[in-house]
Amino acid sequence: MDILKRTKIVEVLKREDFGTFVNVKGWVRTRRGSKQVNFIALNDGSTINNVQIVVDVDLFGEEALKAITTGACISVNGVLVESQGKGQRAEIQAKEIEILGEADATTFPLQKKGHTLEFLREIAHLRPRTNTFGAVLRVRHHLAYAIHKYFNDRGYFYLHTPIITASDAEGAGAMFQVTTLDLDKLPRNAEGKIDYDQDFFGKSANLTVSGQLEGELGAMALGSVYTFGPTFRAENSNTPRHLAEFWMIEPEVAFNEIGDNMDLAEDFLKYLITYALENCADDLAFLNEMYDKELVERLKFVTENDFVRLPYTEGVKILEASGHKFEFPVFWGADLQSEHERYLVEKHFKKPVILTDYPKDIKAFYMKLNEDGKTVRAMDVLFPKIGEIIGGSQREENYEKLFERMEQMHVPTKEMSWYLDTRRFGSAPHAGFGLGFERLVLFVTGMTNIRDVIPFPRTPKNCEF
Ligand code: ATP
Ligand code: MN
What we know:
By secondary structure, this protein is of the alpha+beta class. It is built from 14 helices and 16 strands.
């Protein structure tokens, strides 16, 4: 085949210089046609749209074309021509076709007919080749980019917080232990306990559940920082909203108080959704058509309306007065379940809700205590279909109050002296939050299971690929 520079299909479909020679490479979605002419729908992942390759059967021979089956990878040299059909402008009249990789039709699992999302989860190594996962993964990419852009444009610094940590201080969930000790021959100390002196770090270590505590150290120096990294929680919750390995975005801002934190969360979410609407229109239109006819409408609605801001105490009153039968009980002091969160958002307000001022006993030790002595300056952002998408707070900046709270909640103050140092030296009000990246991708794509918005999900009893 002649050497011709490859053009991505996303570019080919925009071109109007009909008559020019182009080369495209991609994976065959379908091949159909008659004895005279075949049509190949080719996709290279650059867009949800396929380019149509028009093939003169006599030119290639019926036998040779048989190897061009769904899933095969081909390279095509041909002439860009104006499409006869409606929809797309450009198609390619094939002159040369090279098969780069065949895909045996009897064993290739992805055939023309649609597959269930459950089945696709079992072949997660191939599912990126489907329209659905192509769309989801492109949206995921654009959202990740938009997150960096949002913060960069506003003078935040990207702080890389550790993935291996020795502090279990967050208490955000069960942790995965990291060790090089031989589990068959664990060394014991004089008291008969595992001797972590002999472990890699000389102490017990885990995978991080959050970058927040280190993020606070960064904020107290750089002013405005954010983290965006993987987090790990060994919680055995097999829900459509929990993964054992997920990505989290955590801004932390010096001098911000709870109101600023809410403003940031609302502006940030609206920016990201707007960015997706503007930059992922084809993919969102596909997902809207296939899975959720109200998707685009819902995304627009969220960007156009103010979020409700409501104290937890008021939220509980609404739930108690609702007369709705919940699976889990509601009372002041209860940790709200996703059914409660969704009731407030979907049934009562019909808008995203930022719930604030939670009882201190159901929240982490570092949250700033309110004057009432009972509640803390926590804020959870609750979204339709998702429930909690963001959890955050204003942090306790007073050394004595923080120390007392840590003691009460059995957080080891000695091991955490590095954290307490921020309050000892030049303490300042500050606030931040954690946005679960996959929960955001769930919301934006309209998918309903978190396993379908990350390339290779990790959940209890599932660590394939
Ligand atoms: P939930 O109550 O939904 O389990 P959480 O209160 O434990 O969440 P936080 O510790 O506040 O979560 O974490 C911040 C954000 O990270 C959450 O708002 C959510 O978007 C996301 N998140 C938390 N746990 C998970 C998980 N297991 N899988 C995916 N995302 C998660
Ligand atoms: Mn939370």
